[in-house]
Amino acid sequence: MVSSIPVSEPCLVGRELELVSDAVRSGWVSSAGPYIDKFEKNFAAYHGVKHCVALANGTAALEVSLHAIGVKPGDEVIIPSFTIISLALAVLRLGAIPRLVDVDPDNWNLTAEGVQAALSDKTRAVIVVHGFGHPADMDPILELARVHDIKVIEDAAESIGSRYKGRLCGTMGDVGSFSLYANKLITTGEGGCITTNDDEIARKARGYINLYFGREERFSHEGLGYNFRMTNVQAALGCAQLEQIDYFAARKKQIGGWYRDALAGCDTVDFQATVGPVDHVYWMYCVVLRSHVEMTAMSAMAYLGERGIGTRNLFKGLHTQVPLQPYLVHTDKHFSVTERLYGRGFYVPSAVTLTKDNVMTVVDVLNELR
Ligand SMILES: Cc1ncc(COP(=O)(O)O)c(C=O)c1O
After folding, report:
1. Separation of 180 CA from ligand 1 center, angstroms?
2. pTM to 2 decimals?
3. Is residue 134 part of a domain?
4. N or C of the chain: less Cβ packing under 10 Å?
């Protein structure tokens, strides 16, 4: 049966058509054009940071961030095992070494203790992911990074609009890295961006995403860059989405509240917890099967799918990814949290367009899992 409650869908009810049409009518359909500038200014203003650099996607944003903070071949970069492969790929593309650390059982993110145990004399940076809308416990990580002189990249792809002690995700480290894919809090279709208060990091990022064209003489290139540019048409979409960001965040939290309340009496699954002084935007509504439930995440997802409910499994640990095996370094022998979340967890419909009735339908079926 085709899903009748989709796991995710973009909400394009604002000025998306108007601004995208304007970009098309203007003829500025590649990466020059006023919407790029406008999107960058507005995204930076929302985050209260000096620079935003718009670019092709969240995977590229990570690579650009690593380049801009000066990661070199042979450096080690600490990353969580429970996340998208983009982090490991970005590290490897620069000739650096991804060092994996398991995540916290409560907030599903890296911890300062985990990072500390993985430090070596080659550690140059850590990429902290704020997973599924839940901010990582940043202060101890930032302090550890300061003491050991390592750079901090925050991957806020999944946590646009979430806050840690009042500070927006993506504004606390040296660089914030974002994806603007269609399932993110705001979207440009495909797309991403980085945020920073550091002029030099912003300058390097701009060079890297645009073939390092020369500033004095265009075709005297200043470095080995890429074409990771965003288009003006995508940025127009992003500008319309940014106008609605507070509404999207408020809706996500409201829907999260409906799920949390309705699941309070459910004995088949636990809902992702909210831990510490955080404002959790609930990018995706994640559940984990309780131990007495015999179904696995895969069989539970199939059961929901047969009843018209879209789901998506949680990340398979990077330590188990076959193509990464020749390149990984890790101190952990077991990634028990990552493995439990992968084997027992999944996320349920999470679009901002969900109604309360949709949520109740999903919860009724979650109650049937055995
Ligand atoms: C934490 C995180 N980082 C990076 C990415 C990659 O973003 P993109 O798909 O735009 O390349 C994702 C994708 O969802 C993600 O969840």
Report:
1. 8
2. 0.97
3. yes
4. N
